[in-house]
Design a protein that fits this description.
It contains 11 helices and 10 strands. The chain is α/β, with parallel strands linked by helices. The strands form 2 sheets. It has a 5-stranded mixed β-sheet with strand order 2-1-3-10-4, with helices on both faces. Strands 7-6-8-5-9 form a 5-stranded mixed β-sheet. Strand 1 (29-33), helix 2 and strand 2 (60-64) form a beta-alpha-beta unit.
């Protein structure tokens, strides 16, 4: 008798979950972004949500919950009810976190359901014209000829700008000293002045300076050439394997979110991204298309977690 009651209870719960998923969304959706307003991780989701919201018939309310390198906002989503009403908009800093934080308040692999990337934002390696290098091969050769004399800028330990340089160092086989800065403007100032040798900068930030000749672009770290810089080779085209590090920006949910909701969000987001007005706004933000199924996105994230831990280990970065 007790067993029958338990079975009936489970069946009723499953029916309630199914009914809830079918009626979703019935109220506003909250999207937590674990970084500040104005960052690429903030701007890109807002562009997509502007179109996605009317498609779903509900407002998508963005909440910037910053702190602890993005882990505070991420933890809030991990602990949220898995009902489709709390989502996470993040970048590949999500897959970097396990390599630089020893005690995360969530499990990056097990506590989230990957939904879809909004797109990819490759970076470009820039130097001062005063350095005199015309190609990445010339710069690498100079660095190898004088070990320990080169340096590079980043916006912090474990950041995409840091790991981009470390991947190139490993792929090209040269050494350079890491100089972290508080933000991109400070890093660019030192690069332009020639006091720091190179920096992997987001393309949309670097492009005006490249076009006016203030900076020289040597290589991009995406999987394909950037439309804005068609003459600049990728790291693979330059002959350096496993040196690519494109930054994705995408959407995740708590792991037990019903699959029907995850699949609908994936399909509706693809529709939103393919709207010409949305495509134009994303292109202006330097975003390249990156369409994936939830399973493909999940597989990519898990592979990145392992790869980033290996890069951090090789770079001597100790989780703290």
């Amino acid at each position: 008798m007790i067993c029958r009651i338990a079975i009936i209870g489970v069946c009723l719960l499953l029916m309630q979950v199914a009914a809830s998923a079918q009626s979703w969304p019935a109220r506003p959706i909250r999207a937590i972004i674990p970084f500040g307003a104005g960052s690429a991780t903030d701007v890109v989701p807002r562009i997509v949500f502007e179109q996605l919201s009317p498609q779903l018939g509900q407002p998508i309310v963005v909440e910037n919950r910053t702190g602890a390198g993005g882990t505070l906002g991420t933890a809030a989503v991990a602990k949220a009810d898995p009902d489709g009403y709390t989502l996470l908009a993040h970048s590949n800093a999500f897959s970097v976190a396990p390599a630089i934080y020893a005690n995360l308040p969530y499990d990056t692999e097990k506590d989230f359901a990957a939904i879809i990337p909004f797109g990819s934002l490759p970076a470009v390696l820039v130097i001062s014209p005063s350095k005199g290098f015309k190609t990445i091969q010339e710069m690498v050769a100079a660095a190898k000829a004088k070990p320990g004399t080169f340096n590079y800028a980043s916006v912090g330990v474990g950041s995409g700008t840091h790991l981009s340089a470390e991947k190139l160092k490993l792929g090209a086989g040269f050494d350079a000293v890491h100089i972290p800065f508080r933000g991109g403007p400070e890093a660019l100032t030192e690069i332009i002045a020639g006091r720091v040798d190179f920096y992997f900068c987001p393309i949309n930030t670097a492009l005006p300076l490249i076009r006016q000749g203030t900076l020289v672009a040597l290589v991009t770290n995406g999987t394909a050439r950037a439309p804005e810089l068609p003459e600049v080779p990728t790291t693979l085209e330059a002959g350096y394997r496993n040196a690519d590090f494109p930054i994705w920006i995408g959407m995740l949910a708590p792991v037990q979110t019903p699959r029907s909701i995850v699949d609908r969000l994936n399909a509706e987001t693809i529709k939103a991204i393919q709207v010409p007005a949305t495509q134009e706004k994303l292109a202006k933000a330097g975003i390249l298309p990156l369409i994936m199924t939830p399973s493909e996105f999940d597989t990519r994230i898990k592979a990145e977690i392992a790869s980033n831990i290996a890069i951090a280990t090789a770079a001597g970065i100790k989780p703290n």
